Amino acid sequence: MLGRIAGPFGVRGWVKVASFTDPPEQILEFPCWRVALPAGGSRELRPLEGRRHGKGLVARIEGVDGRDGAMALARGELWIERGELPALGAGEYYRADLVGLEVVNQDGRPLGRVDHFLDLPANPVMVVSGEREHWVPLVPRHLRRVDLERGRVVVDWDPDF
Predict the structure, then answer these.
(1) Tell me, what CATH number does 131's domain have?
(2) Are residues 69 and 10 in the same domain?
(3) Which of 14, 67, 86, 142 is most buried by its number of CB atoms within 10 A?
(4) Residue burial 130-160, b: 16+ Cβ < 10 Å; e: rest
C-alpha cells in the first residue's frame, strides 16, 4: 500500500493524501494509482497535481470535480502494481517483502516473524510477533542481515527485551 485518501480537501474535488512513501511526495510521481474503496471495489485514479499541505499532501484527481466525488474516495487505500515500483539498490528492501519472514537474533535464537511496521518519530520499528512481541528499531545497529532467499531477518536484539 502506498498511502490512503484521508478525505476531501475543499470543495473542488481535491483530496487529502496520507502517503507511506519515503519521501512522502514520491507518491505524486506515480502516474496512476489504484484505490481500494472502503465500500468495496476498486478503481484507477490519475493524479493531475499535488503538493505538501501541513503534515500531509493534497492532490487533484482526474475526473473528481467536487466535494462529493472526493468524499466517495475517503479512506480508500492507494496501491500500484509491483512492477511499477522503483528498482532498489543493494541492501534496500520493500517492507512488504519482509512481512512474514522469520526473525532471529545474532545467536540464532528465534524471536518470531515480522508482523508489521510502525513509523515512529525517532525511527521506524519492525514489530515481530512470536511468544512475545518485540519492537525492533529499523536502524543499522539492530537490523544486521536480510536473507530473502532463506526467508530470514537477523537482528542484534536481546530476546528478553
Answers:
(1) 2.30.30.240
(2) yes
(3) 14
(4) eeeebebbbeeeebeebeeeeeebbbebebe
